[in-house]
Amino acid sequence: LVRFYGKGGIGKSTTSQNTLAALADLGQRILIVGCDPKADSTRLMLHAKAQDTILSLAAEAGSVEDLELEDVMKIGYKDIRCVESGGLTVGCAGRGVITSINFIEEDGAYEDLTMFIHG
Question: Span of the secretion signal (predicted)?
Fold first, then answer.
């Protein structure tokens, strides 16, 4: 488990994604869970494509129980598994992160991983 923390705007997402790309190049099997309300933690892994968050998809579907893992997880560079948890507003993402982590764990997203990253 690796976490990238710090004040907003200091390059956590960019640093984490470049680190993950290097680890994937070394053959590591990685899951990244973006915990930023801006949902930009996986953008580089997905070739600059925005990803819907678990919370936004759950709101559309009715609840998180109505989602499937393939609805929320995208495959990026070197088969890195990418999930964005989302959050209500900047600074208030805690509940979204907990809900997201529990959902992807229950649906088997951690199987066959060598690295689990969130930040």
Answer: none
